[in-house]
Design brief:
- By secondary structure, the chain is an alpha+beta fold.
- The chain has helices spanning 8-14, 39-42, and strands at residues 2-6, 18-20, 23-24, 28-29, 35-38, 52-55.
- It has one domain.
- Helix content is 17%, strand content 31%.
- A hairpin with a 2-residue loop joins strand 2 (18-20) and strand 3 (23-24).
- It starts with a strand and ends in a 9-residue tail after the last strand.
Length: 64
């Protein structure tokens, strides 16, 4: 899944704010400490807010 990497400051700024009526930004922190949002959410930011786009693969939970 392609996601948009954002800064920790931007993630904190966006968390819990609406990007469209009734829909909130939901930044997620990866295990390496970087933050991302979905491409749908990224459409509501400027290109300056986005560090890069990456193909994110969630880590596998081996405890199951």
């Amino acid at each position: 899944m392609i996601v948009a990497i954002i800064t920790a400051d931007k993630a904190q700024e966006l968390e819990g704010t609406e990007y469209t009526k009734g829909v909130l930004f939901n930044p997620v922190q990866m295990t390496d400490g970087r933050w991302f949002i979905s491409l749908v959410e990224a459409q509501y930011l400027t290109t300056a807010d986005i560090i890069e786009l990456i193909d994110y693969v969630p880590p596998v939970d081996e405890e199951i």
